[in-house]
Amino acid sequence: MFNDEFMPESDDEFDETDEFDPEAIRAGEAILIVEIATDGDGIIDQRTANELLELTEEDAEAEAAERGWIYRVGSLDGMHFPLTRDYRPNRVTVIIEEDEVVAVEVG
Hints:
Low-confidence stretches: 1-8, 13-18, 20-39
CATH superfamily of the domain at 46-106: Trypsin Inhibitor V, subunit A
CATH topology of the domain at 46-106: Trypsin Inhibitor V, Chain A
CATH class of the domain at 46-106: Alpha Beta
Helix content: 10-25%
Number of helices: 3
Structural class: alpha+beta
Strand content: 15-25%
């Protein structure tokens, strides 16, 4: 069911900072509103994610939690885990070998 909580009552509710196009709304185009709970602008860049490299599994998980990131282990000592393929810009997937993060992927 459509939730019209974010729909404007008139074009006057929009200003130049709004990301919505009132014409698109009237034309019936779908609008997706996503709120991401992370630091900064909500998107983890690869350079920042790479700060988890060489940390222990425990330290990497704690660091990700402190930054508000979703954290998951994709592989542990060669054992691969089933993962969803959806893209989440506030999630990191780590590869761990011998209790050390050897790879990090954003999404």
